[in-house]
Amino acid sequence: MEILLRLLIAHLIGDFLLQPNKWVKNKEKKKLRSGKLYIHVLIHFMLSFIMLWDAKLWYIPVTIGISHLIIDSAKVVFQKKKNKRFLFFIDQILHIIVIAAICFSINSLELNFKLNTGLLLILAAVIFLTKPSAVLIKILISVYTPKTEMKKDGSLQNAGTYIGMLERLLVFVFIATNHWEGVGFLIAAKSIFRFNDLTQSKDRKLTEYILIGTLLSFGIAILTGIIYQYFN
């Protein structure tokens, strides 16, 4: 469990926190000629090595790096506009399968230094609820993106993204501390603040788009909190 969490944390950091959007676009444009692809793979290798911090386990970061190169290379080669969403999920599933297979094959292995599993679980959940969840929600609802957009006059840049991260983290904290009433309060507060945006919008699809995104955000946070409680 500890090794699994360490490698998952390394994956979340490498694939989301340390991979800017411009790198993703560069890989999509240049494909195998993109230098960002190989830097990205090197980052995953280094993160896996740092998270394990055991020279005797050098083969694990190497396996992670090679598998990441193969999977990501196949993704950029075969990716088209129509299958972009599908390949995103296949890509993530394959990376997780590789990590799970590694952990299964070394189930009885002892690390040089131990970390608190509960702390690793919290760290994994917190990281997942930030940019990884934001990207996941964006991919999920991209097919429903309305043609018209809400006016952004006076709105802070990326404010919606950061608000979503904060609300998911708050929901997780409420559930982790067994304060479910806080989740209800947060949903009610978000509904009130969003009401003005929804009433100003004359586009029904835009209204539905906002509601789907909000419900997905809360749903992911609640599910993450429940999973944390189960394993903690």
TrEMBL record:
Pfam family name, one: DUF3307
Entries under InterPro entries matching the protein: Phage_phiKZ_Orf197 (IPR021737)
Keyword hit for Magnesium: no
Segments traversing the membrane: 37-53, 59-78, 85-107, 119-141, 209-231
UniProt keyword list: Membrane, Transmembrane, Transmembrane helix
UniProt-recorded name of the protein: DUF3307 domain-containing protein
